[in-house]
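Fill in residues.
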């Protein structure tokens, strides 16, 4: 079980890193990371980009562990793991962006900002499912 959790953590961190890179290259050098820091009310002029980057890595690791606890009990099946990864990305969006970001911190959520936040998180879920499947398949 610890091996599965460790693999989920590493897969979540790697998928989070790749997702953070999506936020870095979009709209200038890391300007989109301010949005990520605003989800939890941690944005500042000087450190907002770094906080957003670290927040994506941290939450990526947390959701990677949760993913591994759910999907680690199943036999490796790519379709099921990709779908579970998509669900993990959607749950991340609902919990962090929708409930905390808009509910507590009152961050405005228009159609463009919904797409701006949900698409990278769904990509995170696909990466998480794919990376986890590859690592599990190689070790099986």
């Amino acid at each position: 079980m610890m091996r599965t959790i460790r693999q989920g953590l590493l897969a979540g961190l790697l998928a989070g890193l790749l997702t953070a890179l999506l936020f870095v290259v979009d709209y200038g050098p890391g300007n989109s990371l301010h949005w990520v820091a605003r989800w939890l009310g941690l944005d500042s002029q000087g450190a907002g980009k770094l906080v957003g980057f670290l927040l994506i890595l941290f939450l990526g690791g947390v959701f990677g562990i949760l993913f591994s606890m759910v999907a680690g009990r199943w036999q490796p099946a790519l379709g099921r793991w990709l779908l579970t990864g998509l669900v993990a990305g959607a749950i991340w969006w609902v919990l962090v962006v929708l409930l905390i970001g808009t509910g507590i911190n009152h961050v405005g959520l228009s159609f463009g900002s919904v797409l701006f936040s949900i698409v990278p998180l769904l990509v995170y879920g696909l990466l998480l499912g794919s990376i986890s499947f590859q690592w599990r398949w190689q070790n099986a």
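The chain has one domain: 2-139.
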